[in-house]
Amino acid sequence: MKTALQSQRGQALVELAIVLPILLLILMAIVDMGRMYHGLLSVTTAARVGARQASLGQADAVIQAAAFAAAAPLETNRLRVQITPSQSLRFAGTAIEVVVEYQLAILTPGMQNFFPNPFRVIGRAVMARE
Question: b/e string for 94-105 if b means 16 or more Cβ within 10 A?
Answer without folding.
Answer: eebbbbbbbbbe
